Amino acid sequence: MSLENRVKEHRARLNVNQAELGKMAGVSRQTISLIERGDYSPSVALALRLAQIFQVPVEEIFFLTDEEGDK
After folding, report:
1. Distance of CA 22 to the CA centre of its chain
2. A Gene Ontology molecular-function term (predicted)?
3. What is the DSSP letter of 41?
């Protein structure tokens, strides 16, 4: 199982860059970049904070996939 995300898509919908989203979420631009690339799994608190910022359920941003990349 792998944790995937749609942070980049939701960030684009808000028309903010990584630095701006990081500031809104209380983390660095680098953290947002790592999350978007799938190189970092956010804490539950950060995932919920991002869901609040995007105004969507956390499951709409983060989801598990099997080894072949299917939901």
Report:
1. 11
2. DNA binding
3. P
